[in-house]
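Try this one yourself first.
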Protein backbone atom coordinates (compact mmCIF):
# COMPACT_ATOMS: atom_id res chain seq x y z
CA UNK A 1 0.00 0.00 0.00
CA UNK A 2 1.20 3.50 -0.75
CA UNK A 3 0.07 6.84 0.72
CA UNK A 4 2.04 9.78 -0.57
CA UNK A 5 5.70 8.83 -0.17
CA UNK A 6 5.02 6.21 2.51
CA UNK A 7 4.81 2.59 1.40
CA UNK A 8 3.85 -0.21 3.75
CA UNK A 9 2.46 -3.73 3.73
CA UNK A 10 0.65 -5.97 6.16
CA UNK A 11 2.34 -9.05 7.55
CA UNK A 12 1.26 -12.37 6.11
CA UNK A 13 2.50 -14.34 9.13
CA UNK A 14 0.36 -15.59 11.99
CA UNK A 15 0.77 -13.82 15.33
CA UNK A 16 2.58 -16.87 16.74
CA UNK A 17 4.97 -17.10 13.79
CA UNK A 18 5.55 -13.35 13.90
CA UNK A 19 6.55 -13.49 17.57
CA UNK A 20 8.93 -16.38 16.90
CA UNK A 21 10.38 -14.58 13.88
CA UNK A 22 11.01 -11.42 15.89
CA UNK A 23 12.79 -13.36 18.63
CA UNK A 24 15.01 -15.15 16.12
CA UNK A 25 15.88 -12.05 14.10
CA UNK A 26 16.47 -9.96 17.21
CA UNK A 27 18.95 -12.57 18.44
CA UNK A 28 20.69 -12.59 15.04
CA UNK A 29 20.85 -8.79 15.02
CA UNK A 30 22.32 -8.74 18.54
CA UNK A 31 24.97 -11.22 17.41
CA UNK A 32 25.84 -9.12 14.34
CA UNK A 33 25.95 -5.99 16.50
CA UNK A 34 28.44 -7.69 18.81
CA UNK A 35 30.39 -8.83 15.77
CA UNK A 36 30.62 -5.22 14.51
CA UNK A 37 32.10 -4.13 17.83
CA UNK A 38 34.49 -7.09 17.93
CA UNK A 39 35.61 -6.52 14.34
CA UNK A 40 36.41 -2.91 15.15
CA UNK A 41 38.36 -3.59 18.34
CA UNK A 42 40.05 -6.92 17.62
CA UNK A 43 43.84 -7.27 17.81
CA UNK A 44 44.11 -10.94 16.82
CA UNK A 45 46.80 -11.98 14.36
CA UNK A 46 46.17 -11.50 10.63
CA UNK A 47 45.79 -15.21 9.91
CA UNK A 48 42.88 -15.27 12.37
CA UNK A 49 41.45 -12.16 10.69
CA UNK A 50 41.56 -14.03 7.35
CA UNK A 51 39.79 -17.05 8.85
CA UNK A 52 37.14 -14.83 10.43
CA UNK A 53 36.60 -13.06 7.11
CA UNK A 54 35.98 -16.38 5.35
CA UNK A 55 33.55 -17.46 8.09
CA UNK A 56 31.58 -14.20 7.89
CA UNK A 57 31.43 -14.43 4.10
CA UNK A 58 30.08 -17.98 4.37
CA UNK A 59 27.35 -16.94 6.83
CA UNK A 60 26.44 -13.97 4.62
CA UNK A 61 25.99 -16.28 1.64
CA UNK A 62 23.74 -18.57 3.72
CA UNK A 63 21.50 -15.69 4.78
CA UNK A 64 21.17 -14.43 1.22
CA UNK A 65 19.94 -17.78 -0.12
CA UNK A 66 16.44 -16.41 0.52
CA UNK A 67 16.14 -12.65 0.95
CA UNK A 68 13.73 -9.85 0.12
CA UNK A 69 14.52 -7.40 -2.64
CA UNK A 70 15.54 -3.93 -1.50
CA UNK A 71 14.85 -2.49 1.95
CA UNK A 72 12.55 -3.73 4.71
CA UNK A 73 10.19 -0.75 4.52
CA UNK A 74 7.27 -0.54 6.95
CA UNK A 75 5.24 -3.61 7.75
CA UNK A 76 2.06 -3.54 9.83
CA UNK A 77 1.54 -6.16 12.51
CA UNK A 78 -1.81 -7.64 13.50
CA UNK A 79 -2.41 -4.82 16.00
CA UNK A 80 -1.64 -2.14 13.39
CA UNK A 81 1.75 -1.47 14.97
CA UNK A 82 4.49 -0.30 12.62
CA UNK A 83 7.29 -2.85 12.23
CA UNK A 84 10.08 -0.55 10.99
CA UNK A 85 12.71 -3.25 11.35
CA UNK A 86 15.09 -1.67 8.87
CA UNK A 87 15.02 1.75 10.55
CA UNK A 88 18.54 3.09 11.13
CA UNK A 89 17.71 4.21 14.69
CA UNK A 90 15.12 1.75 16.05
CA UNK A 91 14.99 -1.14 13.59
CA UNK A 92 14.88 -4.56 15.26
CA UNK A 93 16.80 -6.09 12.35
CA UNK A 94 19.30 -3.27 11.90
CA UNK A 95 22.59 -3.99 13.75
CA UNK A 96 23.49 -0.29 13.86
CA UNK A 97 20.17 0.75 15.43
CA UNK A 98 20.66 2.05 18.98
CA UNK A 99 17.12 2.73 20.26
CA UNK A 100 16.03 -0.86 20.78
CA UNK A 101 15.12 -3.12 23.69
CA UNK A 102 15.83 -1.44 27.01
CA UNK A 103 17.13 1.58 25.10
CA UNK A 104 13.93 2.10 23.10
CA UNK A 105 12.44 5.57 22.71
CA UNK A 106 9.68 6.10 25.26
CA UNK A 107 6.60 8.26 24.71
CA UNK A 108 4.94 10.38 27.37
CA UNK A 109 2.49 13.30 27.48
CA UNK A 110 5.30 15.80 26.87
CA UNK A 111 7.18 14.11 24.04
CA UNK A 112 9.76 11.34 23.88
CA UNK A 113 13.02 10.34 25.52
CA UNK A 114 15.64 7.58 25.35
CA UNK A 115 18.75 6.49 27.20
CA UNK A 116 21.22 4.97 24.76
CA UNK A 117 24.57 3.20 24.85
CA UNK A 118 26.75 4.58 22.07
CA UNK A 119 29.92 2.51 21.85
CA UNK A 120 33.01 2.39 19.70
CA UNK A 121 31.25 1.93 16.35
CA UNK A 122 29.66 5.38 16.75
CA UNK A 123 32.94 7.24 17.28
CA UNK A 124 33.74 10.56 15.64
CA UNK A 125 36.39 12.56 17.54
CA UNK A 126 38.56 10.16 19.58
CA UNK A 127 36.51 8.75 22.44
CA UNK A 128 33.42 10.77 21.49
CA UNK A 129 30.19 10.21 19.60
CA UNK A 130 30.13 11.33 15.97
CA UNK A 131 28.02 14.47 15.59
CA UNK A 132 26.16 12.92 12.68
CA UNK A 133 25.04 10.06 14.90
CA UNK A 134 23.61 12.53 17.40
CA UNK A 135 21.75 14.33 14.60
CA UNK A 136 20.42 10.99 13.30
CA UNK A 137 19.09 10.01 16.72
CA UNK A 138 17.52 13.42 17.33
CA UNK A 139 15.82 13.38 13.93
CA UNK A 140 14.05 10.14 14.84
CA UNK A 141 13.32 11.35 18.36
CA UNK A 142 11.60 14.49 17.06
CA UNK A 143 9.12 12.48 15.01
CA UNK A 144 8.52 10.18 17.97
CA UNK A 145 7.88 13.15 20.27
CA UNK A 146 5.46 14.72 17.80
CA UNK A 147 3.57 11.44 17.44
CA UNK A 148 3.47 10.99 21.21
CA UNK A 149 1.51 14.23 21.67
CA UNK A 150 -0.74 13.53 18.70
CA UNK A 151 0.86 16.03 16.30
CA UNK A 152 2.27 13.89 13.52
CA UNK A 153 4.88 15.44 11.29
CA UNK A 154 7.85 14.83 9.03
CA UNK A 155 11.16 16.64 9.43
CA UNK A 156 11.54 19.67 7.17
CA UNK A 157 14.44 21.32 8.99
CA UNK A 158 16.82 20.16 11.70
CA UNK A 159 19.39 22.37 13.45
CA UNK A 160 21.84 20.94 15.99
CA UNK A 161 24.02 23.11 18.25
CA UNK A 162 26.93 21.09 19.61
CA UNK A 163 27.86 22.55 23.00
CA UNK A 164 30.72 20.17 23.78
CA UNK A 165 31.93 16.70 22.71
CA UNK A 166 29.70 13.81 23.77
CA UNK A 167 31.78 10.99 25.31
CA UNK A 168 31.07 7.46 24.11
CA UNK A 169 28.87 5.52 26.51
CA UNK A 170 25.53 6.39 28.06
CA UNK A 171 23.70 9.22 26.33
CA UNK A 172 20.23 10.55 27.18
CA UNK A 173 18.12 12.39 24.61
CA UNK A 174 14.87 14.22 25.28
CA UNK A 175 12.52 15.95 22.79
CA UNK A 176 9.29 17.88 23.14
CA UNK A 177 6.79 20.03 21.22
CA UNK A 178 7.63 23.71 21.68
CA UNK A 179 5.16 25.42 19.35
CA UNK A 180 2.25 24.50 17.09
CA UNK A 181 1.20 26.58 14.06
CA UNK A 182 -1.32 24.84 11.85
CA UNK A 183 0.50 22.03 10.06
CA UNK A 184 3.87 23.17 11.44
CA UNK A 185 5.40 21.76 14.62
CA UNK A 186 8.42 23.40 16.22
CA UNK A 187 10.30 20.85 18.30
CA UNK A 188 13.23 21.12 20.71
CA UNK A 189 15.60 18.55 22.16
CA UNK A 190 18.65 18.07 24.36
CA UNK A 191 21.42 15.48 24.43
CA UNK A 192 23.16 14.75 27.74
CA UNK A 193 26.19 12.65 28.58
CA UNK A 194 26.45 10.10 31.39
CA UNK A 195 27.09 12.90 33.90
CA UNK A 196 23.93 14.74 32.88
CA UNK A 197 25.80 17.55 31.13
CA UNK A 198 24.09 19.00 28.06
CA UNK A 199 26.34 18.30 25.08
CA UNK A 200 23.96 19.28 22.28
CA UNK A 201 20.69 21.13 21.77
CA UNK A 202 18.49 20.95 18.71
CA UNK A 203 15.47 22.51 17.09
CA UNK A 204 13.40 21.02 14.30
CA UNK A 205 10.52 22.06 12.11
CA UNK A 206 8.15 19.21 11.39
CA UNK A 207 5.33 19.53 8.89
CA UNK A 208 2.21 17.41 8.50
CA UNK A 209 1.88 16.84 4.73
CA UNK A 210 -1.55 17.76 3.38
CA UNK A 211 -1.79 14.41 1.60
CA UNK A 212 -1.49 12.71 4.98
CA UNK A 213 -3.86 15.09 6.74
CA UNK A 214 -6.57 14.45 4.15
CA UNK A 215 -5.90 10.73 3.79
CA UNK A 216 -8.41 8.24 5.18
CA UNK A 217 -5.82 5.47 5.04
CA UNK A 218 -4.70 3.70 8.19
CA UNK A 219 -1.48 5.42 9.18
CA UNK A 220 1.16 3.07 10.62
CA UNK A 221 1.28 3.37 14.38
CA UNK A 222 3.21 1.80 17.18
CA UNK A 223 1.61 -0.73 19.52
CA UNK A 224 -0.11 0.78 22.60
CA UNK A 225 2.18 1.73 25.45
CA UNK A 226 1.52 1.65 29.19
CA UNK A 227 -0.90 4.23 30.51
CA UNK A 228 0.59 7.62 31.35
CA UNK A 229 0.68 8.92 34.96
CA UNK A 230 -2.61 10.74 34.34
CA UNK A 231 -4.24 7.45 33.42
CA UNK A 232 -4.53 8.37 29.72
CA UNK A 233 -2.98 5.95 27.24
CA UNK A 234 -0.04 7.82 25.79
CA UNK A 235 0.09 5.87 22.54
CA UNK A 236 -0.86 8.03 19.57
CA UNK A 237 -1.07 6.71 16.00
CA UNK A 238 2.09 7.42 14.06
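Now uncover the answer:
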Amino acid sequence: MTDGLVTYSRTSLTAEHLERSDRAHAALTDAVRALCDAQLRTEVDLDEVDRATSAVEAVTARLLQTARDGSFGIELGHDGGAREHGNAVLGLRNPLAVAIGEHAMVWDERGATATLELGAVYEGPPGCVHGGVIALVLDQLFTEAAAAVGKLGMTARLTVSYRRPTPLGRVTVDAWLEELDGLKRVMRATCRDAEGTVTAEAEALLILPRWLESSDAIWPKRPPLAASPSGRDSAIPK
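Discussion: DSSP finds four helices and ten strands in the chain. Residues 223-238 have pLDDT under 50 and may be disordered.
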